[in-house]
Amino acid sequence: MKLLTKEIAEQLQKQYPMGSDMEQMVIAKLFDPCSSWSWYLINQDPEDFYYLWGIVQGHEVEMGSINLAALEEYRGRLGIGIERDISFTPTPAKTVWEKLLKGEHI
């Protein structure tokens, strides 16, 4: 599965000028089916396709840069790569952040 479609990339790049502003939308969710890690994508550098910004739910909930190339290359312990949640609908970043901090499922 392609992690970013052209449409998703366009939406992410449109939000790039807003930087780390929590008023943006989370456009897509990626996850590791072999672990509890998830990446909630907020924006993408139009000059560097592999530079993403978003919320990461791993050992902790954090916000920061995400390397798309690393996610595309990753294979978990069962040889399965990162997947895109095709049922995810764009959600305000602030809402995602608050729900994750409370331990709620997104």
Short synopsis of the structure:
The protein has 106 residues and is α+β, with helices and mostly antiparallel strands.
Query: Alpha-carbon distance between the termini?
Result: 21 Å
Major beta sheet, strand line-up: 5-4-3-2-6
Question: Helices and strands: which structural class?
Answer: alpha+beta
Principal-axis shape equals globular
Q: What string, H for helix and E for strand, traces the elements in order?
A: HEEEEEHEEH
Question: In words, what does this structure look like?
Answer:
This protein has 106 residues and is an alpha+beta fold. The chain has one domain (6-87). The chain contains three helices and seven strands; from the N terminus they run αβββββαββα. A five-stranded antiparallel sheet has the order 5-4-3-2-6. The longest helix has 10 residues, at 6-15. It is globular. The model has no long low-confidence stretch (mean pLDDT 96).
List keywords for this structure.
globular; 106 residues; two-stranded antiparallel sheet; 5-stranded antiparallel beta sheet; 3 helices; alpha+beta
